[in-house]
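go over this:
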Amino acid sequence: MRWLVVVLMLCGCPRSAAPGDEGDAGRALVAIIDAGPPVTLARLDAWLGWQKVMASLPPLGLDGGSSLRRRARQEAALLADAGLSFDQVDAIEAVVAAVVAERNVARLTGVEALQQFRQGVQQLGTEQRLKAEAAMADLQARSTQGSLAPLEAQYGADAVAVVLSREAEVTRTWDALLEARGDRR
């Protein structure tokens, strides 16, 4: 139990400011970096470049904690070189994930895809055909028919437009990121 208290104190509790730290330049710098909309063309380009460099890093070694700490420091340094904060990366990745997912669903439920699906389903057995048709109906019901309006309302029209301006590269990068994480099957 004592170790839990120590870990919580080290990881989660904010330190109180020392006398004279009221004008901390570090906090002012963070405020400047985090100012403005989270997804801009410059930040998206920086994120794409950061992801490209991250993908080129060698795989983690098997030596446990030291390799993880070394990789964490390396990733943080690369992120700082890209001019991004972790909060900005999280914001960019939220918009990227949502836009890529919605566009993929729209492609899956588009007119051409539906025609190909209907032709392919005819060759399946009855049980498989019923399952495939139910899955497609579910996709269509969840789809907003390619409309990105809900995403624009959630993240802002400008953020969605920025991601769409680099859609092909963003989609390739996101797919590679998911592949590397093992999230894509």
